[in-house]
UniProtKB/TrEMBL annotation:
This is VCBS repeat-containing protein. It comes from the Eukaryota. Keywords: Signal. The keyword Hydrolase does not apply.
Length: 608
């Protein structure tokens, strides 16, 4: 349970965070493991031999409502948003692949919509974009019809209705799969850019500003490029728009840098990796340096790739983030989901075995991201496309998806934040039964690490953090045969600025001091008996006598006592005293604090 405090001594109702079935969590510790200024939690799960790392952040929760699209076998495959009737509420338009139509849903501003109005398109509408083509301040539409080799223009009326389509050819066997809108030639009139998958080309339709367009101008790509997605942005900071596309067939991103007059320089490419299969790209300033970066969804390598821009048309090599071995990526978007001024990465993922989801990498500045967080879309619901807007006017971004196999729209309305995402599970070894965890900087790299007491395998383990919420493999140190280490703590015991470790062994009735060297390596320094049949059950560390050397306090479950070991500057300890807690007290845990503000430390004991 997590109780969020109000700073006045009171707390919110607890947030219950599941650790999973039969995990038997035994110990908890906290710290900022990924340098995002949010507290993270690590839990020792003795029942399943792992550590659960819960990375704290301003994660968001979403509803999962469904809007049914009228029409059997509509197969919606793309979605876009715009204000089509000028009521300042977001509306939706959906491409219905099998019905060869688009459906327009007018929004009420509360996350609900009217019954759609349908308009015929060409064969297999695959992509859609929204813009004002004729300068009347009313949104119009363009649709890419893959199997008819055309785009369709729909001119809008102020009431949210549209004229019948006007088609433009993209060329024989071109298969247009992606369409976007921008003023490519700087004449203040919107133009249309199309990715033609099968003709390996990018098509440009220059707008006249009256809702009509010139015939397509082709920009050819190398054979086998198979462009799947196209975007327009200023990629080299020269105030001239450029074109970038995801070339699935050649595993790269292609870029045409613009001259500002509708013509372009020769193609350059950025590799997305061997057999990566880029299917979708988007741009945004992901590291807050004012320069445009490129984000790509790689379906075959099951990664999202980030190309950080240098502001001059060059980019750093791709940084990849895994989306999971079962992912099947459809598209990528960016938005500031949690209003922290850092862009987040949003992925539509078909998944496998019907486990579809929306995946989010939450950004926290500097081009850094949290671990992959998923939001389930429902068993056997196949999302194909997403649009992100504030559909219910609550100043929180929502997500609308099309489920092609359910003839429906999934409306995921953002509700509240939650402090932790699904945990990263870190194995501690077969039959290890971790019982206690503590955190600290064991190799002095300013990345938090943690150490655990493995009661089943009679050792302690150290996991070194990488600063991004990930950890190295476990390094183990024996505590002796049949020792059953039960609790662990860390501190600077010999004043050498390197963290040391103390562990209490339940079955051998002792504590062990391991000396640290600041490089992640430790050695056994000394062993102190806690008494025959004592069963030490908890450790707490503080400078009890204020001599600037840390002392150790132990609970003795079997003898119903508190044991105090006084430290010295050499890392040695002497047993000062024991304090009886009474018959059958069964002390399980001890904490140290100045309870009565007399500048002296007091002991708080939980008696089982």
């Amino acid at each position: 349970d997590v109780f969020l405090g109000y700073s006045n001594g009171t707390f919110d109702e607890p947030s219950i965070i599941s650790t999973g079935s039969e995990t038997l969590p035994k110990s908890i510790a906290s710290g900022d493991f990924n340098h995002d200024n949010w507290t993270d939690i690590v839990v020792a799960n003795s029942g399943v031999d792992n550590i659960g790392a819960y990375l704290g952040f301003d994660y968001r929760t979403f509803t999962n409502d469904t809007i049914i699209i009228p029409g059997k076998s509509a197969v919606p495959i793309c979605i876009a948003a715009g204000d089509f009737n000028n009521d300042h509420n977001w509306d939706l338009v959906v491409c219905n692949g099998q019905l060869q139509s688009i459906g327009v849903y007018l929004g009420y501003g509360n996350g609900t919509f009217t019954v759609p109005t349908s308009y015929p398109t060409g064969n297999t509408p695959k992509s859609i974009s929204v813009g004002d083509f004729n300068g009347d301040k009313i949104n119009d539409l363009v649709v890419a019809n893959r199997d008819e080799n055309t785009i369709s223009i729909f001119i809008g009326y102020a009431n949210g209705s549209f004229q019948s389509q006007v088609p433009y050819s993209t060329g024989s066997s071109s298969s247009p799969t992606s369409v976007t809108i921008s003023d490519i030639n700087n004449d203040s009139k919107l133009d249309i850019v199309v990715a033609n998958r099968d003709s390996n080309s990018i098509g440009l339709f220059v707008g006249y500003g009256n809702g009509s367009f010139r015939n397509q101008i082709l920009n050819l790509l190398p054979n086998g490029s198979t462009p799947r997605w196209v975007i327009v942005d200023d990629l080299n900071d020269d105030d001239i728009l450029d074109i970038a596309m995801a070339n699935y067939g050649l595993n790269n991103i292609g870029i045409f840098f613009g001259y500002g007059n509708g013509s372009f320089r020769d193609l350059i490419t950025l590799s997305t990796g061997n057999i990566s299969g880029p299917v979708s790209i988007v741009t945004g300033d992901m590291n807050n340096d004012k320069w445009i970066d490129i984000i790509v969804a790689n379906v075959n390598s099951k990664t999202v790739g980030l190309f950080l821009g240098n502001g001059n048309g060059t980019f750093l090599p791709q940084i990849t983030y895994s989306t999971g071995s079962q992912s099947d990526l459809m598209s990528v978007s960016v938005a500031d989901i949690n209003n922290d001024t850092s862009l987040d990465i949003i992925l539509v993922d078909l998944g496998s075995s019907g486990n579809s989801n929306v995946g989010v990498f939450y950004g926290y500045g500097g081009g850094k991201f949290t671990l992959h967080t998923t939001y389930e879309t429902g068993l056997n619901f196949d999302p194909y496309s997403i649009v992100i807007r504030d559909f219910d006017n609550d100043n929180r971004l929502d997500m609308a998806l099309v489920y092609s196999n359910k003839d429906s729209i999934g409306m995921m309305l953002q509700r509240r934040s939650k402090p932790f995402a699904t945990p990263l599970l870190i194995p501690t070894g077969k039959d290890s039964r971790p019982m206690s965890v503590a955190v600290g900087y064991f190799n002095n790299d300013n990345h938090l690490d943690f150490t655990i007491a493995n009661s089943g395998t009679n050792n302690i383990g150290i996991f070194l953090g990488d600063g991004n919420g990930g950890f190295s493999g476990q390094i183990t140190y024996s505590t002796g045969n049949n020792s059953t280490p039960i609790c662990i703590a860390v501190g600077h015991f010999n004043n050498d600025t390197y963290l040391d470790i103390v562990v209490a062994n339940e079955q051998t009735n002792n504590i062990m001091i391991f000396q640290g060297y600041g490089n992640g390596i430790i050695t056994l320094l000394t062993i102190y008996s806690t008494g025959i049949n004592s069963v030490p059950s908890s450790i707490s560390i503080k400078d009890i006598n204020k001599d600037n050397y840390l002392d150790i306090v132990i609970t003795d479950y079997n003898s119903n006592e508190i044991l105090v070991f006084i430290g010295s500057n050499k890392g040695n300890f002497s047993k000062l005293n024991s304090y009886s807690l009474g018959y059958n007290a069964g002390p399980k845990s001890v904490a140290i604090a100045d309870i009565n503000n007399d500048s002296l430390y007091d002991l708080i004991v939980a008696n089982y």
